[in-house]
Amino acid sequence: MLLDNITWFEEVGSTNSVLADMVRRGGVANGSVVAAGYQSGGRGRHSRQWLTQPGVNLTFSVYLRYDIPPAEFAPVTLVSALAVGRYLRGRGIDARLKWPNDVLVSGRKICGILAETVDSGADFCSGVVGIGLNVNMAAADAAKIDKPATSMLIEAGSQFALHTVLTEVLEELESQLSRRQCGGFAPIARDWEAMCCHLGRPVTVAGDADDKTSKTLEGVFAGLGDGGELLLRDSRGEVRAIMSGDVVIH
Ligand code: BTN
């Protein structure tokens, strides 16, 4: 389904925004994909910028609609991260996952994911999952990014064709999404944990900057909850489920 409706744009503001607008106008099939050679206004979590040079990295968004309550949409970020992680490992790149939306290699970010709801009701939810995967970014350009970053080129030592990478990532994503549809989130969560770089490690979870009631919490990352929540075990052994925030690994 994900390979049936792919639209490539030379340049857009943000593939997430373009696809969400198309969905709101109507007539977009479930599983449609918008990809772009360049995003002039690429967005990350917490309204951060997602910057890439033209034609170097992969930036795309997938439209997903489910007949499930909106709360059950959240784990698509983790399902997508697992799919990208599996794809990279299949190419010999030692990808690790960081909650909730990062794919890292040796602590350097290679991929970020931004899932945004477009429409929802009591028993349905639709949204776009945006994936930014660093494919052919050179080491000198990765060094200009304000946080540690890497790319497939840097890790594998060779260039990759963007269209091929897109097709292969979408195939893996489709397989993980249908696995979740058939078998639920639990088996995905166990695979995600196995690929996670902070399972059983002390972490600080900084509350969502947009949520004034959230706090910064310390503890050990104990795994994922049934809805993809971060389970944090504190020094008294109590486990708290955290819905959103940023993880710092110690
Ligand atoms: C993050 O790490 O904060 C998430 C980054 C998500 C970037 C992708 S690139 C394709 C899609 N379009 C956007 O504007 N953002 C996502």
Automatic annotation (TrEMBL):
It holds the Pfam family BPL_C. GO terms for molecular function: ATP binding; biotin--[biotin carboxyl-carrier protein] ligase activity. It catalyses: biotin + L-lysyl-[protein] + ATP = N(6)-biotinyl-L-lysyl-[protein] + AMP + diphosphate + H(+). It is an enzyme of class 6 (ligase). Keywords: ATP-binding, Biotin, Ligase, Nucleotide-binding. Its EC number is 6.3.4.15. Residues 1-181 form the BPL/LPL catalytic domain. GO terms for cellular component: cytoplasm. It comes from the Bacteria. CDD domains: BPL. This is biotin--[biotin carboxyl-carrier protein] ligase. It comes from Limihaloglobus sulfuriphilus.
